[in-house]
Every structure is written in structure tokens, then in C-alpha cells.
Amino acid sequence: MELSHDHARLARLLGGEDLAWLVDRVRRRLEREEPLDGSVTLTDATPEQRHAVQRLLGRRPRAGRTLQVSLPAVDEVLRRSGACPDGLAAAVVALTGPVAVRSSVAAAQERAWQAAFAPVRTATAARPELAAWYERLRGSGLVRRLAGTPEAAVPLLVEVAAVLDQLPASGEPLGRFAARVTGDAHALDDDRPLATLVIGAARALAGLPAGTGAEWRREVWAAVGLLRDELSTTVLTLGLPGDGSTATGRALGALREAGQPVALTLRQLVRDAPRLDVADRTVSICENPVVVADAADRLGSACAPLVCSNGQPGAAVTRLLRLLAAAGARLRFHGDFDWGGLRIGNVLHRGLPVTAWRYDTRAYQGLVAAGLGRELTGPPIDARWDPELGPAMRAAARRIDEELVLDDLLVDLAT
Fold first, then answer.
1. 228-242, pLDDT tens digit by residue?
2. Residue 154 belongs to what domain range?
């Protein structure tokens, strides 16, 4: 229904700059569906604002800087004057345009967001391993922060659903996969919104713990069959049993017989993974390549299975260790007795079924008593697998490198 008003008279009464605050207050009440009763108050009102209210209501406001205006009084003036016979609410609409009720706007927005999420909801409906991830994504507000509006989110969430439909992959380079599924080879680069959303789903599919950093992302992608830096990421091994089912397995078998170390690439471990016969066997993990070199020199083909983390474990190291754990191997880790070694141990113990290998408080204190090591420096941390080890290292303040205990480690590897 069209509202009746005299726009020129209404503008003279209520449309001036000095009454803009009053119009704005009324409009906000209308947006919240609040009644236009009672008064509105303006603190620190200017003389011009006070005179404008006086002209509107025909009476002088109370003394002081605070200005109080009765909304029913304004409504009566507008009706009686003929400027807007339908009253104050209609006058504000006439001056400022239609009012969108906030509850209605919020409901419409929520319906739009539900529609935007529909492709992802459909893509995860029959995949229970993604149910918790979807609920977190829907409730976290991450998509709203990345896209801003439901309209902007629609193409992004369509791409998320398209990626989910193709996971896990079968050892495809990440860029090629992105180009094939989305048309953009860089769509899954670290700084892109699609990668930010999908990597959580990839982690859920692989059953991996939360983490951060380039190596963690590389591991997550690899776990769902997507390769990034597939040839530059390697893991050094010695004595791993091979099999004839894959080229990688045949190579492992030949190099084990020759007593030679082998560096496996992430590509091999994803696209041509060997079948590892290690059920109920111990696989040792060292921190430094020198352990592998000495084991090859002194034990050769008699060396028990050995994997080198080479510092913080990269994606290839973690991928191999997960394959070994899945095959039933018993994993044990030894590293330098320094804070860096404890950090490596914490990473391995947090995500894998790893035990200590001569790498606990008792072993450390025995080495200190033997006079080994040099000054220990750097910020201390505690060991997840042995709460007493960190305090013992702080007390003794001795760093003991893995090279100093090579003989003991090789005795274990020979048996």
C-alpha cells in the first residue's frame, strides 16, 4: 500500500542535517522491530540540534547538553501537520528508503548460506569419515571469513565438493590434480582459500593429527595420494625387506642383499609403495645419516631394518613410518640427547606408535656418568615419552650426540 505524505513539508520538518541523528535512531528501531514509544536521548547536543528539536515540536527543550525527544510527540506533529498522516515510521521510510527488518535479513542470509553449503553437504553425506570435518567447517565461520558472502562462497564450495569427490587420488602431482579438477593448477597452493578448506578434509580422510608447516601439509596431501615436491622429499633407509610386487619393493630387496642404503622418494612411497613384511619386527629410527652409513659399513646385509629421520621428519619419512606401522612393525627411536632431538622425538611420539630406543632418562644419566658429551644450550623442552628426561638434561646440562653411542646402537641393529 502506498503511503501518503507531503515530501516537501516532511523534508522541512524532519529531513534537516541537525535531525539526522533522530531519523537514524528511529530507523534502527524499525530494523529491530521495536515500538516507537518512549524517548530517544542525544548527549552533548549542539545548539543547532537543540534548535531543530524546538522547531519540530514547538517547545524549548530542557536546559543542559543532553537532548531528550519524545517519539510519540514527533509522531503526533507529523500526523497533525499533514506532512505524513501515517506517522513517524512512514516518515522515516519516506525519507530514507525501505527498512529491512534485521531478523528477516538474518533469516534470509542463513538460508543463502545453507544453499551455498549444499554441494559440500551432498559430497560428504555418504562418507562418515568426513562428517565431523563438515560439521566443524559449517560451524567455524571459516568459509564466511574467506568468502565474505554466500554468493561469493558458492563457487568456492562447488570446488571443495569437486575435490572431495576425487579424493583419495592415486599418486597424482598436486598441481596436475588441481588443474584437472578445478581448471587452475594453483588452486591448491598453500595461500589459496580452496587449499585452506580442503586440507582439513584430507587430514580427516587420512586420520592424521592436526599440525602446521610445509612438511605437515606435504604429508597430508601425500596421505590422500597427492604429491608435492615428490622427488626432492626422500627418506634414507637400510635393511628394509623388499618384495616382488612393485619396482620399489624389488629395489629394496636387491639393496638389502647388497647391504646398501637406499633413499626412497615420496613419489615411490605413494605411487609404487612396496609391500613391507615387517609384522612383529622391530624397525629402528635414528636421527643422523652417520648411523646408517656406519651400519652399512660394519653390518651390511646383516643390519636390522633402519630408517633415518635426518633431523625433523619430512613427508617421505612420515609416510614410510606410517606404512611400516600399518604393516605391524614395532617402531623405536633414538636421537641426539639435545633439545632438537627431543623435539624430533615428540613429533614421532605424537603421531606414531613409537617407543624409546636407548633414549630415556636412564640411558642419558649413564652416558653423563661416563663423562660423555659437551655443553647443552638452547631453550629446553620436555619429552612426551619420558617426563623425567627433560629435567635430567637441564640438571646435567650435557649434550650427547648420536655419534658417541654408535657402538651400542650397532650392537642392537646386529641382533
1. 877 778 999 999 998
2. 103-227
